[in-house]
Amino acid sequence: MATATAPTGAKVPIRQTKLFIDGEFVDAASGKTFATLNPATGDVLAEVAEADKADVDKAVRAARRAFESGPYPKMSARDRGRLLQRLGDLIVENAEELARLEALDNGKPITEARHVDMPMSAGTFYYYAGWADKIEGTVIPVSGPYLNYTRREPVGVVGQIIPWNFPLGMLAWKIAPAICCGCTVVLKPAEQTPLTALRFAELCLEAGVPKGVINILPGFGETAGAAISGHPDVDKVAFTGEWKTGQIIMRAAAGNLKRVSLELGGKSPNIVFDDAEIPAAIKGAMAGVFFNQGEVCCAGTRLFVQSGIHKEFVQELANVAKSIKVGDPLDDATQQGAQVSQEQMEKILGYIDIGQKEDKAKLVCGGQRVGQRGYFVQPTVFDSVNNDMRIAQEEIFGPVVVAIDFKSLDEVIAAGNKTMYGLAAGVWTKDITKAHKVAHGLRAGTVWVNTYNAFDPGSPFGGYKFSGFGRENGRQVLDNYTEWKSIWIGLN
Predict the structure, then answer these.
(1) How does 289-326 read in b/e, with b if 16+ C-beta sit within 10 Å?
(2) Which of 90, 94, 164, 413 could connect to 190 by a Cys-Cys bridge, CB 3.0–4.6 Å?
(3) How far apart, in whole angstroms, are the C-alpha atoms of residue 348 and residue 396?
(4) pTM, full prediction
């Protein structure tokens, strides 16, 4: 076991860096490794085994064997629930270590990793533990002398590809419902953040997950991800990430017509009416865009503020943004950590430069890199933004919010919907009729009213349009991982 040292001097254990296939930690078939970096320093944390097609083939064979033979297909639904419960317990028992590892590898503040990522991850396993023995069929009163009933059966071997912004949380959103339904899994964590997924693999051994049921393959999208998406023996692929990659996955999945679910990006409108509770709306706007360094697919990055309060609201938002403490992710006082990579930091700074060059857009605060070591960006607020500008239409995925003026309800619904995305939205008003009208009018998978970034494993999450299709969480995600079978019994 290696350790990594944070700028604070804190030691964080890195227990595992190999691929996890068929219940064992193994080197990549090619012998290749890649570096995972500390976003707070740019230093190498560890060299991690790099999976490619040969490793994916091996993992898929293991997952197929586990699905069709051995102890797993004989395991009762209730016992699968107990397995998920044990995995949730192990996340809780190791929460501090996992949180520190997440902050180290991803760059997010340790306080967010502790109080958001870990409870979300464990809670997802607990939620689907409860569902495992409740996936039921029905008896249908058909015409004629027949008994007709339905069964819901696992779809089979599932390929799962997750992003780097909530590494353990997204792993939980993918693995827990798949195991709940009786599927087996080949999961690729993001190459930027493989460490908590590999630590989770160790917890799978501790929990007694049968060999081959869960396989974890760090690697790159162009190789390991492509091999999973196009593999002829993978029955379904679930992906969270960028829409262009989603299109690539859909094309690859066409080879064997595997099922696909996609949770993609967003450019979510966060709408503040002049009758809103202003302090709460300021707090909600901050959480909507600066949480997790703005690396959130449903971030409320288009802030629509009604004309009567617009100037004062944006100025107060900027004042609060200036007070955010940006720094070492493992420092308890840090409120905003590092962007996940140099590439991501440069992308964000590039968009800030674009915004400053766009006609009439006004940089109110931020806009600069913080320090010269690590990948830190100031919380940034633009005002006087037109909804057609690039910074209002393209996903930046960083701590950048653009403020847009509006006058009427109908105007802001139309403007809110004027985007290729449809993942989420926020509405701030004391008028319940207005709130419902806007919530119903916005084409988005989630609409928060007088709050933002509220999540629960029982509530479905997903998008419209280029934000993808299919849902994570809730009972709805079970449709991703099950097939319906209709059985007819002749009674003559």
Answers:
(1) bbbbbbbbbbbbbbbbbbeebbeebbebbbebbeebeb
(2) 164
(3) 6
(4) 0.96
Active site positions, annotated: 263, 297
Q: Distance between CA 424 and CA 41 in Å, rounded?
A: 33
What is the C-alpha to C-alpha distance for residues 4 and 297, in angstroms, rounded to an integer?
29
Say which DSSP state 336 is in.
B
397: three-class secondary structure by DSSP: coil
Rounded mean pLDDT, 72-92: 98
Q: How many CB atoms lie within 10 A of CB 464?
A: 16
What is the spatial distance between Cα 86 and Cα 356, in angstroms, rounded to a whole number? 51
Kindly report, residue by residue over 121-151, the tens digit of the pLDDT.
999 999 999 999 999 999 999 999 999 999 9
DSSP-assigned beta bridge partners for residue 92: none
The pLDDT of 298-316, averaged and rounded, is 98
Structure-token match 């949380």, residue found: 169
Task: Print burial letters for 333-357: b (CB count within 10 Å at least 16), e (below 16).
Answer: ebbbbbbbbeebbebbbebbeebee
Which amino acid, one-letter code, is at 429? T
Distance CA 483, CA 153 (A): 5
Tell me the three state secondary structure of residue 389.
coil
In this structure, what DSSP letter does residue 326 have?
Answer: B
The pairing of strands 468-469 and 259-263 is: antiparallel
Structure confidence by residue, pLDDT tens digits, 429-444? 999 999 999 999 999 9
Bridge-based pairing of strands 184-188 and 157-161 is: parallel
Query: Is 213 exposed, middle or buried (CB count within 10 Å of its CB: 0-12, 13-18, 19+)?
Result: buried
For residue 4, what pLDDT band results from cuts at 50, 70 and 90? low
In the chain, what are the domains?
A: 2-264+467-487 (3.40.605.10), 269-457 (3.40.309.10)
Contact 345, 444 (CB under 8 A): no
**Longest distance between any two alpha carbons in the chain, whole Å:** 81
